Amino acid sequence: MRTLVMTLILILTACTESDSDDAPDDGAVDAPDTPDAPPATDGPAACTVTDPRTCVGNNICLNSTCAPAFPRPYVFAVTVAAIPTTNAENGQPWDVGNAPDPYAEVSLNRQLILTTGVQTDTFAPAWTDTTTVVIPDDTGSPDLNVLSVIVWDADPGDDDGVLACRWTHLTADLVHPGSVTCTGELGSVTIAIRPVL
Known about the structure:
- The protein is mainly beta.
- The protein has a domain at 72-195: Immunoglobulin-like.
- Helix content is 10%, strand content 34%.
- A four-stranded antiparallel sheet has the order 6-3-10-9, with no helix packed on it. Strands 5-4-7-8 form a four-stranded antiparallel sheet, with no helix packed on it. A two-stranded antiparallel sheet has the order 1-2.
- Residues 1-43 have low confidence and may be disordered.
């Protein structure tokens, strides 16, 4: 992840450096102007909702127009999970003779925003619970927009943790496709994240 972040910083730095007459000549050759390039427009760029690459930076495609991803309200939903047949902590079945009774908790910036209902006796829960929350502007705060989900097995007394996933910084690239998925040895979980239009 650090390599990816450092690479992005280097790319962004290279792309945002200004071309000044008093800058030393480093031998680089500027690309010639291309007469076939479309003229720049003052309005928002057009985009394709199914192709996140049509919007750049911290923008997403809404109604065929690139728009800022944050701050913006989003609908969150834990849609599906896949749970292994045994508890990774002890190698035993989740419940005596039965599959687990999973539910999920979703947090944004360490604040609980959604708790799903319990699905009974299933290794493949599907939920329809939703909540709408504003994902704030994270300019200058890379520790903002942390999304996490914990899937639990509901038991009398203490619930067992099934799996936990964390996205350390939501970006336009992550939210544009409409969902994020975490997959590992302990199973998988998908969270739908859709902008409110």
